[in-house]
Predict the 3D structure of the following.
Amino acid sequence: MNYHVLTLFPEMIESGMNTSIIGRAIEKGLISLEAVNIRDYAEEKRKGRVDDYPYGGGAGMVMQPEPVYAAYQALCERIGKRPRVIYLTPQGQVFRQSLAQELAGEENLVFLCGHYEGIDERVLEEIVTDYVSVGDYVLTGGELPAMVMMDAISRMVPGVLNNEESAQFESFQDNLLEYPQYSRPEEWRGKKVPAVLLSGHHGNVDQWRREQSLKRTLERRPDLLEIAELSNKDRKYLELLLANEEEA
Ligand code: ADE
């Protein structure tokens, strides 16, 4: 996976991405990352300036189209491909695990990070393939969202996580939340680890975990149940939970 980030703050991307698991994946050569400074593509006559006042008036500045376009064109020529371009914006589709999974299959990804009041619409029309938001709030720029996305996508790239399983069986498997986890000691401040986990009976452990996932999702993120992959047994268990709730 090769990430290319078009940004006015390349040092923010570099310092944020070279640590921990992602840093290790970069060292291993599973992932590469380049942060391209859009300012390097400012027009000669503009002397490093990449923003200007909005036509029609209003607050703030708008990033001009040409430096962004030139940075993207140079990138395409360098790699000999025209990869997907993700523009980070609160106006995009909300980022979810399913998109992380899909994007992990791409060879190259470009993240376009805006600042100020945004980027001139014409260059967005020209190069952007995906508009993505990381949530319904407004940030000062696209760098943090780009890093959030790269982190989530990277862990879906084979070999990045040590244990292939951990990518598969965590939160949002089947669009359900993960079951609770326990480690030693068996009793902590009077709280005991659920007995089934100490039983050594794998079938019972699996069933308990599935039920906990369902219960947790119903309590914390009931919206996910609409898109979750549920068996008939799952549905029966949820009905039971709902019936008990009504009784209480
Ligand atoms: N840029 C500013 N706010 C954002 C958000 N919520 N998601 C993605 N990009 C953004």
